[in-house]
Amino acid sequence: MRSRFLSNLVASQNFPFYVTGALFIILFGFGSVLFDGFFSLQVFLNLFIDNAPLIIVTVGITFTILSGFGGIDLSVGAVVSLSCMTLAVLMRDTTISPYVCMAIVLAIGFTVGLVNGLLITYFRLQPFIVTLGTMFLCRGLTAILSRDSVPIDNPQYSDLAFFSFEFGDYFLSLGAVIALFMVVLATLILRYTSFGRGVYAIGGNEQSAKLMGLKTDSIRVRVYIISGFCAALGGICYSWIMLSGYTLHGLGMEMDAIASSVIGGTQLMGGVGFMPGTLLGVMIQGSILTIISFQGTLSAWWTKIVVGLLLCLFIVMQALVNAHKNKLMNQIAEGSVKDSK
User: Looking at the whole model, is its pTM more than 0.85?
Assistant: First the structure.
């Protein structure tokens, strides 16, 4: 009975999420045992505050991975950089309201996502190549705007950067609240809307989705628009942390987002994933970095090493889980054949 329960648990869609959740609890518990002051609400909230841009970017990139067809978006880090630089240059050289500047940045992210989606969908180009091209394009545009760091010293924008929601002795930044809102919104979209179900459907089997009458091309284009929009929004939150534009902002963020999504339970083949799991994936990275910060002598590069190992382990786990699911399905099919005889 117990073995059957474990078998069904491993085969369930939420098994990677359970593993990710357990891993986060272990890491946070490990830090709490080792370091005084680690086990506190503010340290926990800091995981959201420090990683708000990455959470938002990861939400967007999870949509692309779920859509299948090798779905990925390598341009998100460059869009973050372009967003920060555009905000900095606009507020330095013009008198445009910061809110209009942010709207312009979101429109840029929307446009980059639209271009990615159209090229991938209607020209059947590989997402890796298309988004690699737009990554270079956005990095180049950022360098054209300025090769030097451009500070953001607009008082109205700085007020947004330092704004926080306080409750007692604890606080949560505006960027963190936006990040959590995006996770909740994305979860609801994927779970309760026809578009969300369509994303899972085309990621699982695009041909079957077409036979069901789903507009697969439209869904895939919208997926990349969401990714571009989230990258621009993440860029705005990143600018609140850095208060500057620079060509190297967001460098490697696309890889951190992909790793967080996979560690959070999203399958690289598409069709399987749980958005709160991607949040836990980011928080695992944040927990590792926080432990290193409390330790004081280790390099921050250990975060990359540990995340790389975890990524490999989760990919292997995905392969083993899929093999187990296939085995169970074959057993069920053989049992059905025997019953019919």
Answer: yes
